[in-house]
Design a protein that fits this description.
Length: about 450
């Protein structure tokens, strides 16, 4: 029986991806575990492995395709001994067999390009009574948000919910990984569920900007070019709008003297053992900042939290995300258990993560989650700035450039290397006094860096 190979969900929030490259061609034999394609998500390029063995009968989605929905059929696999031509033909008449990703038939039907056709079929009186009619101009709208997290729902389910005024965030999903699918919304409609009035405003509230037509009317034709948004830029736009609309930010800044830290860094780098004529580590100022923030959150555990509507999530370890600029946007790889790691371990791990981030080779678990973050623009000459808190974090530290400034020491004017840092916090869980306490602890480690070694 033909096996459908479907677009995998490479992260809990992924709804679509780009099929960057096929590593097999029609007629090739594959075994379970063979890498068959490369998929681009909003943050990384990842390899996809076959979960069954057989012959590639048909490639349904060509490489280079953008916006391929999760669970959409991308290829057909013929089982051993099965005629590949017959299996390929099944892709064209909708009789494809088992799903290689164990996707339920209803979910696969929702992932196909034209769900509206299903609604146009004659229905039994019972089905007609329960299946809502969706106007053609009703779009799925943005991904719904609940408690600061995206709600995993199919585009068709979102369209029905929007058309019927149902609060999709209040529905329990019965699809794979709790995904809300068509039948869940239909059941809610049949049960008389309706969205509160405020929920009807959600799509407009989450819009990331004016329409293209509205902007282009302001400029002379031919005086511009349009650069299409990629998945990364779309995701950044959505998350920043969500963060600013849901998180009450406030900011605390402090100046830190760096002379002792720069001296310690130089001494530690000079003392680094060598292997193959290369030092075993090379500490950066950012490595020391990561360690200092991790230790400060260890010392002020009430700030190492995440907000939910039901409870405060107090984390037992400090996982520090570090903003890394990559072509087209940024990504935040995470140093896990940073408070427990040595400076050399943080430095080497950060170098590896940063390299693979720029190559878009990070795995989802390497950039999702975290309890806080560091955004360092000091190397770009920026004196100070404020960063946006990225949930589930409650804090992010914006680090400016170290520069020589006049300071007063023992009543006399002196020159010191000074760095300004600004802590952005989620005021729902980190109040002003707590933010100030955290910054004071951070400043103590930066200005007395030997304390990070004991």
């Amino acid at each position: 029986m033909p096996i459908n190979i479907t677009m995998p969900a490479l992260s809990p929030t992924m709804e679509e991806g780009n099929l960057a490259k096929w590593l097999v061609k029609e007629g090739d034999s594959v075994a379970a575990g063979d890498v068959i394609a490369e998929i681009e998500t909003d943050k990384a390029t990842m390899e996809v492995e076959a979960v069954d063995e057989g012959t590639v009968a048909k490639i349904v989605v060509p490489e280079g395709s953008e916006g391929v929905k999760v669970n959409a059929v991308i290829a057909i696999l013929a089982e051993e001994g099965e005629d590949a031509s017959a299996a390929a033909a099944s892709a064209g008449n909708g009789t494809g067999g088992e799903s290689g990703g164990s996707v339920k038939e209803e979910t696969k039907a929702e992932a196909t390009p034209a769900p509206a056709k299903e609604d146009a079929k004659p229905a039994t009186p019972l089905k007609a009574a329960l299946t809502p009619t969706i106007p053609d101009d009703v779009k799925a709208g943005p991904v719904p948000i609940k408690d600061g997290e995206k709600v995993f729902a199919s585009p068709l389910a979102r369209r029905i919910a929007k058309a019927e005024g149902v609060d999709i965030t209040a529905i329990s999903g019965s699809g794979p990984r709790g995904r809300i699918v068509k039948r869940d919304v239909e059941a809610a409609v049949a049960g008389g569920a309706k969205a509160p009035a405020a929920a009807e405003k959600t799509p407009a509230a989450l819009a990331t900007g004016p329409s293209t037509d509205a902007v282009l009317k302001l400029f002379e034709e031919g005086s511009y070019e349009l650069v299409k948004h990629d998945n990364m830029r779309k995701t950044i736009a959505k998350r920043l709008v969500e963060a600013k609309q849901t998180i009450p930010h406030f900011y605390v800044s402090v100046d830190c003297e760096l002379d002792a830290l720069l001296k310690l860094r130089q001494d530690l780098n000079s003392a680094a053992p060598r292997k193959d004529d290369k030092p075993a580590y090379k500490l950066s100022v950012n490595d020391l900042v990561i360690k200092a923030l991790a230790l400060a959150l260890r010392d002020v555990p009430d700030a190492n939290v995440s907000w939910t509507d039901d409870a405060m999530v107090k984390h037992k370890h400090v996982d520090v995300g570090v903003a890394v600029s990559i072509p087209g946007g940024l990504i935040t790889p995470i140093i896990r258990d940073a408070e427990l790691k040595t400076l050399s371990a943080i430095s080497n791990e950060m170098r590896d993560l940063g390299k693979r981030a720029k190559e878009r080779k990070l795995q989802p678990q390497e950039y999702q989650g975290g309890t806080t973050a560091v955004s360092n623009m000091g190397m770009m000459g920026v004196k100070d700035f404020s960063a946006v808190v990225n949930p589930p974090h409650a804090t992010i530290l914006a680090v400016g450039a170290g520069e020589q400034r006049p300071v007063v020491k023992d009543g006399a004017l002196a020159i010191a290397q000074v760095m300004t840092v600004t802590l952005s916090t989620d005021h729902r869980c980190v109040d002003g006094a707590l933010g100030a306490e955290l910054l004071a602890a951070f400043k103590g480690y930066i200005e007395k860096p030997m304390s990070m070694l004991v």
